[in-house]
Amino acid sequence: MVTRRNFLKKAGIATAGLAISSIGSVSALSEESLKRVNGANGKINLACVGIGYRGSDIIKEFEKTGLANVVALCDVDMGAKHTQEIMGKFPKAKRFKDFREMFDKMGNEIEAVSVGTPDHSHFPICMMAMAYGKHVYVEKPMGRTFYEAELMMQAAKKYPNVVTQVGNQGHSEANYFQFKAWKEAGIIKDVTEVVAHMNSPRRWHGWDTNIYKLPEGQPIPQGMDWNTWLMAIPYHDYSDKYHYGNWRCWYDFGMGALGDWGAHILDTVHEFLDLGLPYEINPVMLEGHNDYFFPMSSTIQFRFPRRGDMPPLDITWYDGVNNQPKLPNGYGTSELDPNIPTVAGGKMEARKLNPGKIIYSKDLIFKGGSHGSTLSIIPEEKAKEMASRLPEVPESTSNHFANFLLACQGKEKTRSPFEVFGPLSQVFSLGVMAQRLNVPIKFDRNTKVVTNNAFANDMLAGVPPRKGWEDFYKV
């Protein structure tokens, strides 16, 4: 069995070359898990790390499946207003502020873990969970840095009995099955350009871009474990400009509009067109660029080479309220998927141009939205001409949450495991690097090295982890 002591003793700092060493076998734990599942009315014993805001929504969705027993709740701000609803909903679940203590004390009682915490904290929680042999459901963008995603994929490969799922929920909805069916039928082929757009307001819009230092420190809220909230990130004084979802704004903690929304807009394009990693990333336009938080508007180009018989492809990403792409003739109206999940308790507001994508191929143009929204062929005349040639699209057998739990039982396979989502997470991290540095990046897809900028190459790994967190950075 892997214990925290064994984890910290056997794991070490990962250096160049992404070396792999042993931190223990999970096969025995997985066998125990299967036995418990068979004796627990088919329900998975689930521990939930992050129980407020988006984490709360995740837990409720798992409960709706009827396939989960919530046995543990973990949050660094346990007892705060935004955590009380879930605490009241599951009064018998054991409570923790530190996920490491949770694994120490409840390792044998937990079969799966949901991770609904800020982006910078996904990596340590997932790495320890996998080392314990626990199945992992984590919100996108999976890892914050290129290197974190790399190590998470390696850990998933090392522990093949561990089920992983990244929370891009549309990957279990209609868009996933339609894109797959249309690609296999040859409707989607010879794609050369994709335009992705997310033009809704972001939390940092309106902030002072002449910023020259991080926010002044404030008193840490009573009862909050700020040190554990930071995890491996170098110490920052507490500020409400980081907490309650505001972490999304900062390079040190979040992934900006690209990391937040790219997973819901580009997931099927990336998987079914076999994009892998780009060879070039260009920050075409950055409005309000600064060293601390994300630009007010960004246009970023990702260039992908020929893959087999598929031609080279460019993706251009647009974010910012007024930074909207040119729309093709016959585009029509832009609809908002009503199933988009809540974030921090709020619903997405519809706008003139809602989050989505335009896919240009040799013969056809496709218009798509976000999450589970399906594609349509434009203009309408072309859609009518193609209608009789479109294949039947199967319906999903399970939503994203049920898919994960059924996979834990061995009844399904997850649709967005680490090996599928990991390279897309790395695409986003490369885009964020281009945003932060405001320079073009040339990338070797085979060696996974930045070839034109030594500083950017060092950024693939991010800053060294804080003392006490180094041991998580080796598989």
Automatic annotation (TrEMBL):
This is Gfo/Idh/MocA-like oxidoreductase N-terminal domain-containing protein. It holds the Pfam family GFO_IDH_MocA_C2. It comes from Dysgonomonas gadei ATCC BAA-286. PANTHER family: BCDNA.GH03377, OXIDOREDUCTASE-RELATED. One of its GO terms (molecular function) is nucleotide binding. It comes from the Bacteria. SUPFAM superfamilies: Glyceraldehyde-3-phosphate dehydrogenase-like, C-terminal domain, NAD(P)-binding Rossmann-fold domains. Residues 216-274 form the Gfo/Idh/MocA-like oxidoreductase bacterial type C-terminal domain. Residues 44-164 form the Gfo/Idh/MocA-like oxidoreductase N-terminal domain.
